[in-house]
Amino acid sequence: MERDPQAHWLETETALHYARAAVRVGLWASERVLIERHLPKSGRVLELGCGGGRVVLGLRQAGYPDVVATDFSPIMVSLARAVLADHDASWEHCVEQQDATDLSYPDASFDHAIFAFNGLMCLPSRDHRLAAMRSIHRVLRPGGIFLFTASDREKGANAAYWAKEARPADVIPGDRWHESDTSPVFIHSSTEQETRAELAETGFEVIECPLSTEVAADGPLVREFAGETRFYVAKKA
Ligand SMILES: C[S@@+](CC[C@H](N)C(=O)[O-])C[C@H]1O[C@@H](n2cnc3c(N)ncnc32)[C@H](O)[C@@H]1O
Fold first, then answer.
1. Residue 1 confidence (pLDDT) above 90
2. Is 99 in the pocket of ligand 1 (CB under 6 A)?
């Protein structure tokens, strides 16, 4: 039976998991380091795939005044709004429903873009991921920063798993359906070379791309929520 890569993100249980993470997990230490290093607070931030509002809440609490948080999933948008409103009634208005592959914002209307916790890699194919990269590139101003993560299948903590993973000949390397408490979740794990090539193809220059464990020692809640991943900090060329 054909599996629907969007189904997982449309379920209430999934959205509740990410809304709880907004409150319990918050910004990772590693995210905080790279956000502080590359995203001046004066800039306008676009968040893609905001889930339950974990990153937008952290940014607002850290003093970023101009953040637009988006997700394609209506239930994620509703719960992110509720999480934000619980902290400050005026913050809920910064969450909007948008598909990252087809953003409706004007060209060059943001200074920074964040697609946190492997959200870009949840898109169901390379073509979808490139469409999102191009759409994000279009809405960033020249020199604007794009920060995201992708699980690395070649280096770091996940390499051993991928090395012994048997792959049917018809499956694209790195593509994987994971079982979950709700519908199975699709995620692509990339290599640094592959993601660097896709960034170059869509008009971005990589500034740095460390593993999360190379940036900071994330606490136990973060490690349980997210494991290790690779950050990409790229600039619109
Ligand atoms: C792994 S979750 C991360 C949630 C949140 N950023 C966090 O770090 O807690 C991936 C998110 O990407 C969203 N997403 C998936 N496909 C998307 C698309 N085409 N456009 C926008 N968001 C999408 C999902 O609904 C989900 O909220």
1. no
2. yes
